[in-house]
Write a structure and sequence with these properties.
Layout lengths: L1 H14 L7 E5 L10 H17 L14 E7 L8 E4 L8 E9 L7 E5 L1 E5 L2 H9 L17 E7 L4 E2 L14 E2 H12 L6 H4 L2 E2 L2 E2 L2 H6 L22 E3 L2 E3 L17 H9 L18 H21 L1
Parallel strand pairs: 1-4, 4-7, 8-9
Antiparallel strand pairs: 2-3, 2-6, 5-7, 10-11, 12-13
Bound molecules: calcium ion (2 copies) and zinc ion.
Protein backbone atom coordinates (compact mmCIF):
# COMPACT_ATOMS: atom_id res chain seq x y z
CA UNK A 1 0.00 0.00 0.00
CA UNK A 2 2.72 2.45 0.91
CA UNK A 3 4.74 2.10 -2.32
CA UNK A 4 1.54 2.63 -4.30
CA UNK A 5 0.81 5.78 -2.32
CA UNK A 6 4.33 7.07 -2.94
CA UNK A 7 4.03 6.66 -6.69
CA UNK A 8 0.69 8.46 -6.65
CA UNK A 9 2.20 11.31 -4.66
CA UNK A 10 5.04 11.68 -7.12
CA UNK A 11 2.54 11.80 -9.95
CA UNK A 12 0.62 14.60 -8.26
CA UNK A 13 3.74 16.62 -7.62
CA UNK A 14 4.78 16.34 -11.25
CA UNK A 15 1.31 17.48 -12.29
CA UNK A 16 1.68 20.52 -10.05
CA UNK A 17 4.87 21.71 -11.77
CA UNK A 18 4.71 25.41 -12.69
CA UNK A 19 2.87 26.22 -15.90
CA UNK A 20 5.18 27.68 -18.53
CA UNK A 21 3.03 30.20 -20.31
CA UNK A 22 5.47 31.82 -22.71
CA UNK A 23 7.54 29.31 -24.68
CA UNK A 24 10.78 30.79 -26.05
CA UNK A 25 12.20 28.66 -28.86
CA UNK A 26 15.61 29.31 -30.39
CA UNK A 27 15.73 28.30 -34.04
CA UNK A 28 19.07 27.24 -35.55
CA UNK A 29 18.00 26.69 -39.18
CA UNK A 30 20.17 29.55 -40.46
CA UNK A 31 23.29 28.51 -38.56
CA UNK A 32 25.08 27.18 -41.64
CA UNK A 33 28.52 27.81 -40.10
CA UNK A 34 27.82 25.65 -37.05
CA UNK A 35 28.39 28.41 -34.49
CA UNK A 36 25.93 26.81 -32.09
CA UNK A 37 27.71 23.82 -30.63
CA UNK A 38 25.96 21.47 -28.22
CA UNK A 39 27.35 23.48 -25.32
CA UNK A 40 26.22 26.82 -26.75
CA UNK A 41 22.74 25.41 -27.42
CA UNK A 42 22.60 24.27 -23.81
CA UNK A 43 23.28 27.87 -22.78
CA UNK A 44 20.41 29.11 -24.96
CA UNK A 45 18.17 26.40 -23.49
CA UNK A 46 18.88 28.02 -20.13
CA UNK A 47 17.99 31.44 -21.52
CA UNK A 48 14.70 30.07 -22.87
CA UNK A 49 13.90 28.56 -19.46
CA UNK A 50 14.65 31.85 -17.70
CA UNK A 51 12.01 33.76 -19.65
CA UNK A 52 9.58 30.87 -20.08
CA UNK A 53 9.51 30.34 -16.31
CA UNK A 54 8.92 34.00 -15.46
CA UNK A 55 6.55 35.36 -18.13
CA UNK A 56 2.98 34.15 -17.75
CA UNK A 57 1.20 35.85 -20.67
CA UNK A 58 -0.98 33.68 -22.89
CA UNK A 59 -0.21 34.37 -26.54
CA UNK A 60 -2.58 33.25 -29.29
CA UNK A 61 -1.32 31.13 -32.18
CA UNK A 62 -0.56 32.52 -35.63
CA UNK A 63 -2.04 30.04 -38.06
CA UNK A 64 -3.30 31.69 -41.27
CA UNK A 65 -6.42 30.20 -42.87
CA UNK A 66 -7.07 29.85 -46.62
CA UNK A 67 -7.84 33.55 -47.16
CA UNK A 68 -5.22 34.85 -44.76
CA UNK A 69 -1.58 35.72 -45.17
CA UNK A 70 1.24 35.90 -42.62
CA UNK A 71 4.70 36.48 -44.03
CA UNK A 72 7.40 36.63 -41.38
CA UNK A 73 10.47 38.74 -42.10
CA UNK A 74 13.58 38.94 -39.94
CA UNK A 75 16.92 40.64 -39.93
CA UNK A 76 19.21 38.06 -41.48
CA UNK A 77 20.75 36.19 -38.51
CA UNK A 78 23.98 35.88 -40.54
CA UNK A 79 24.19 39.58 -41.50
CA UNK A 80 21.66 41.50 -39.43
CA UNK A 81 22.88 45.02 -40.13
CA UNK A 82 22.76 44.72 -43.91
CA UNK A 83 19.93 42.41 -44.94
CA UNK A 84 16.58 40.95 -44.04
CA UNK A 85 15.02 37.68 -45.15
CA UNK A 86 11.60 36.07 -45.34
CA UNK A 87 10.95 32.97 -43.25
CA UNK A 88 8.93 30.74 -45.55
CA UNK A 89 5.59 29.37 -44.38
CA UNK A 90 6.08 30.20 -40.72
CA UNK A 91 3.27 29.38 -38.34
CA UNK A 92 3.52 30.03 -34.61
CA UNK A 93 1.84 27.85 -31.98
CA UNK A 94 0.07 29.40 -29.00
CA UNK A 95 2.45 30.91 -26.43
CA UNK A 96 5.49 30.36 -28.62
CA UNK A 97 8.05 33.05 -29.45
CA UNK A 98 10.53 31.86 -32.10
CA UNK A 99 13.95 33.52 -32.15
CA UNK A 100 16.22 32.84 -35.13
CA UNK A 101 19.88 32.88 -34.15
CA UNK A 102 23.14 33.15 -36.03
CA UNK A 103 26.65 34.57 -35.85
CA UNK A 104 28.39 37.33 -37.78
CA UNK A 105 31.83 38.94 -37.67
CA UNK A 106 30.96 42.44 -36.48
CA UNK A 107 34.61 43.27 -35.94
CA UNK A 108 35.74 45.05 -32.80
CA UNK A 109 33.90 44.51 -29.53
CA UNK A 110 30.30 44.22 -30.73
CA UNK A 111 28.96 41.20 -28.86
CA UNK A 112 25.51 40.82 -30.37
CA UNK A 113 22.44 42.33 -31.96
CA UNK A 114 18.86 41.38 -31.25
CA UNK A 115 15.32 42.52 -31.93
CA UNK A 116 11.82 41.43 -32.83
CA UNK A 117 10.77 40.28 -36.28
CA UNK A 118 8.44 41.90 -38.78
CA UNK A 119 5.57 40.65 -40.92
CA UNK A 120 3.23 41.34 -43.78
CA UNK A 121 -0.42 40.47 -43.31
CA UNK A 122 -3.51 39.82 -45.38
CA UNK A 123 -7.01 38.85 -44.36
CA UNK A 124 -9.77 40.03 -42.08
CA UNK A 125 -9.29 42.76 -39.51
CA UNK A 126 -9.79 40.11 -36.84
CA UNK A 127 -6.87 38.09 -38.21
CA UNK A 128 -4.68 41.18 -38.47
CA UNK A 129 -5.51 42.13 -34.90
CA UNK A 130 -4.82 38.62 -33.69
CA UNK A 131 -1.34 38.56 -35.23
CA UNK A 132 -0.49 42.05 -34.02
CA UNK A 133 -1.71 41.49 -30.47
CA UNK A 134 -1.65 37.70 -29.98
CA UNK A 135 -4.57 38.20 -27.61
CA UNK A 136 -2.91 41.05 -25.66
CA UNK A 137 -5.32 43.94 -26.27
CA UNK A 138 -2.91 46.66 -25.15
CA UNK A 139 -0.65 45.89 -28.10
CA UNK A 140 -3.33 47.49 -30.31
CA UNK A 141 -3.83 50.61 -28.20
CA UNK A 142 -2.43 53.95 -29.24
CA UNK A 143 -0.12 54.48 -27.48
CA UNK A 144 0.61 50.78 -27.09
CA UNK A 145 0.63 49.34 -23.58
CA UNK A 146 1.61 45.77 -24.43
CA UNK A 147 3.84 43.85 -26.81
CA UNK A 148 3.47 40.31 -28.11
CA UNK A 149 5.94 39.52 -30.89
CA UNK A 150 5.88 36.25 -32.83
CA UNK A 151 9.67 36.16 -32.56
CA UNK A 152 12.79 37.80 -33.88
CA UNK A 153 16.51 37.52 -34.48
CA UNK A 154 19.65 37.40 -32.36
CA UNK A 155 23.13 37.47 -33.90
CA UNK A 156 26.26 36.86 -31.84
CA UNK A 157 29.69 38.17 -32.76
CA UNK A 158 31.63 35.34 -34.40
CA UNK A 159 34.88 37.26 -33.75
CA UNK A 160 34.35 37.15 -29.96
CA UNK A 161 35.97 34.66 -27.63
CA UNK A 162 32.86 33.22 -25.93
CA UNK A 163 32.47 31.45 -22.64
CA UNK A 164 29.68 28.85 -22.92
CA UNK A 165 28.90 27.10 -19.67
CA UNK A 166 26.37 24.33 -20.10
CA UNK A 167 25.85 24.09 -16.31
CA UNK A 168 24.48 27.56 -15.69
CA UNK A 169 24.04 27.02 -11.97
CA UNK A 170 27.81 27.32 -11.51
CA UNK A 171 30.02 30.09 -12.88
CA UNK A 172 33.64 29.21 -13.48
CA UNK A 173 36.41 31.77 -14.00
CA UNK A 174 36.61 32.90 -17.64
CA UNK A 175 38.82 35.98 -17.69
CA UNK A 176 39.22 37.47 -21.16
CA UNK A 177 36.15 35.71 -22.55
CA UNK A 178 32.62 37.04 -22.86
CA UNK A 179 29.72 35.18 -21.31
CA UNK A 180 27.34 33.84 -23.96
CA UNK A 181 24.56 33.47 -21.39
CA UNK A 182 24.75 37.11 -20.29
CA UNK A 183 24.68 38.40 -23.85
CA UNK A 184 21.91 36.00 -24.93
CA UNK A 185 19.66 37.11 -22.05
CA UNK A 186 20.35 40.77 -22.88
CA UNK A 187 19.49 40.28 -26.57
CA UNK A 188 16.41 38.21 -25.80
CA UNK A 189 15.12 41.09 -23.69
CA UNK A 190 15.47 43.28 -26.81
CA UNK A 191 13.42 40.73 -28.79
CA UNK A 192 10.82 40.98 -26.02
CA UNK A 193 10.62 44.74 -26.48
CA UNK A 194 13.13 46.54 -24.27
CA UNK A 195 14.45 49.32 -26.48
CA UNK A 196 12.45 48.02 -29.45
CA UNK A 197 8.67 47.90 -28.75
CA UNK A 198 6.14 50.68 -29.26
CA UNK A 199 5.08 50.13 -25.66
CA UNK A 200 8.69 50.87 -24.60
CA UNK A 201 9.03 54.06 -26.63
CA UNK A 202 5.59 55.23 -25.47
CA UNK A 203 7.15 55.51 -21.99
CA UNK A 204 10.42 57.17 -23.00
CA UNK A 205 10.47 60.83 -22.01
CA UNK A 206 13.67 62.68 -22.77
CA UNK A 207 16.46 60.38 -21.68
CA UNK A 208 14.38 58.49 -19.12
CA UNK A 209 12.08 55.46 -19.09
CA UNK A 210 8.96 56.44 -17.17
CA UNK A 211 7.40 53.00 -16.66
CA UNK A 212 5.58 52.87 -13.32
CA UNK A 213 7.18 49.76 -11.87
CA UNK A 214 10.70 50.55 -13.08
CA UNK A 215 10.37 54.03 -11.59
CA UNK A 216 9.19 52.58 -8.31
CA UNK A 217 12.06 50.06 -8.22
CA UNK A 218 14.46 52.93 -8.95
CA UNK A 219 13.45 54.80 -5.79
CA UNK A 220 10.70 56.89 -7.39
CA UNK A 221 12.95 58.36 -10.09
CA UNK A 222 12.39 57.42 -13.73
CA UNK A 223 15.49 55.39 -14.68
CA UNK A 224 17.97 57.17 -16.93
CA UNK A 225 18.62 55.85 -20.42
CA UNK A 226 21.95 55.87 -22.16
CA UNK A 227 21.89 59.09 -24.20
CA UNK A 228 23.17 57.72 -27.51
CA UNK A 229 20.04 58.63 -29.46
CA UNK A 230 18.65 55.09 -29.56
CA UNK A 231 16.83 55.12 -26.19
CA UNK A 232 17.38 51.36 -26.20
CA UNK A 233 19.40 50.86 -22.98
CA UNK A 234 19.51 51.86 -19.36
CA UNK A 235 22.36 54.12 -18.28
CA UNK A 236 25.37 52.28 -16.88
CA UNK A 237 25.20 54.51 -13.79
CA UNK A 238 22.03 52.81 -12.50
CA UNK A 239 22.00 50.04 -9.91
CA UNK A 240 19.45 47.26 -9.94
CA UNK A 241 19.28 44.22 -7.70
CA UNK A 242 19.69 40.49 -8.16
CA UNK A 243 18.36 38.64 -5.13
CA UNK A 244 19.33 41.60 -2.97
CA UNK A 245 22.80 42.22 -4.41
CA UNK A 246 23.47 45.36 -6.45
CA UNK A 247 24.30 45.06 -10.13
CA UNK A 248 24.24 47.41 -13.10
CA UNK A 249 21.07 46.66 -15.13
CA UNK A 250 21.57 43.88 -17.67
CA UNK A 251 19.97 46.15 -20.27
CA UNK A 252 22.76 48.69 -20.03
CA UNK A 253 24.86 48.83 -23.20
CA UNK A 254 28.20 47.38 -22.12
CA UNK A 255 29.13 43.96 -20.77
CA UNK A 256 32.67 43.40 -19.52
CA UNK A 257 34.68 40.22 -20.18
CA UNK A 258 35.03 37.62 -17.47
CA UNK A 259 31.69 38.55 -15.90
CA UNK A 260 28.24 37.01 -15.72
CA UNK A 261 25.39 39.42 -15.27
CA UNK A 262 21.75 38.68 -14.60
CA UNK A 263 18.39 40.31 -15.16
CA UNK A 264 17.99 42.78 -12.27
CA UNK A 265 14.70 43.80 -10.72
CA UNK A 266 14.91 46.93 -12.87
CA UNK A 267 15.16 44.89 -16.08
CA UNK A 268 12.21 42.66 -15.12
CA UNK A 269 10.23 45.75 -14.06
CA UNK A 270 10.79 47.26 -17.51
CA UNK A 271 9.42 44.11 -19.14
CA UNK A 272 6.41 44.38 -16.85
CA UNK A 273 5.94 48.04 -17.74
CA UNK A 274 5.89 47.31 -21.48
CA UNK A 275 3.14 44.73 -21.00
CA UNK A 276 4.58 41.38 -19.89
CA UNK A 277 3.12 39.53 -16.95
CA UNK A 278 6.26 39.03 -14.88
CA UNK A 279 5.90 36.45 -12.10
CA UNK A 280 8.93 37.59 -10.08
CA UNK A 281 11.37 40.49 -10.20
CA UNK A 282 13.99 38.21 -8.61
CA UNK A 283 13.65 35.04 -10.71
CA UNK A 284 17.05 35.30 -12.26
CA UNK A 285 19.71 32.87 -11.04
CA UNK A 286 19.59 29.68 -13.14
CA UNK A 287 18.85 26.53 -11.17
CA UNK A 288 20.65 23.28 -11.99
CA UNK A 289 18.94 21.17 -14.62
CA UNK A 290 18.14 17.76 -13.10
CA UNK A 291 20.15 15.00 -14.73
CA UNK A 292 18.54 11.57 -15.05
CA UNK A 293 20.50 10.44 -11.98
CA UNK A 294 19.37 13.50 -10.07
CA UNK A 295 15.77 12.81 -11.03
CA UNK A 296 16.07 9.39 -9.40
CA UNK A 297 17.35 11.01 -6.20
CA UNK A 298 14.64 13.64 -6.39
CA UNK A 299 11.97 10.97 -6.80
CA UNK A 300 13.41 9.30 -3.69
CA UNK A 301 13.17 12.61 -1.84
CA UNK A 302 9.60 13.17 -2.93
CA UNK A 303 8.77 9.64 -1.91
CA UNK A 304 10.01 10.41 1.58
CA UNK A 305 7.98 13.61 1.68
CA UNK A 306 4.89 11.69 0.67
CA UNK A 307 5.33 9.05 3.34
CA UNK A 308 6.03 11.50 6.15
CA UNK A 309 3.08 13.67 5.14
CA UNK A 310 0.85 10.64 5.37
CA UNK A 311 2.24 9.79 8.78
CA UNK A 312 1.32 13.22 10.08
CA UNK A 313 -2.27 12.67 9.13
CA1 LIG B 1 29.22 25.89 -14.77
CA1 LIG C 1 1.12 41.15 -22.15
ZN1 LIG D 1 21.53 45.95 -26.15
Amino acid sequence: MKPYFAVAALGCILCAAPVQAVDIVFDYRYDSAGFFTTERRAVLDGVARLFSDNLTDSLSAIQPGPDELFVARIYNPLDPLNSSIVVDNLTVPADQIRIFVGAYDFGGQTLGVGGPGFHSLGGSQAFVNQVESRGQPGALFNPATDFAPWGGTITFGSQISWYADSDLSTVESFGGQFDLYTVAVHETAHVLGIGTADSWFAQVVGDTFTGTLATSINGGIAPALRSDGSDAHFASTLTGHVNGAGQVPLLSPFIPPGTRRYMTDLDWAALDDIGWQVASLQATIPAPVPEPGTWALLAGGLLLVGVSARRRT
